[in-house]
Amino acid sequence: MKEHLESCRQSIIDGDAEKSAELAKLALEKGMDVLEVIENGFVSGIREVGRLWEEGELFLPELVIGADAMKKAMDVLQPSLEGGKGGQKSLGHVVIGTIEGDIHDIGKTLVATMLAANGFQVTDLGADVPVAKFVETAEKTSADWIAISALLTTTMPGQKKVIEQLAAKSLGNIKVMVGGAPCSSEWASEIGADGYAGDAVAAVALAKGQ
Ligand code: B1M
Question: 57 C-alpha to center of ligand 1: Å?
Answer without folding.
Answer: 17
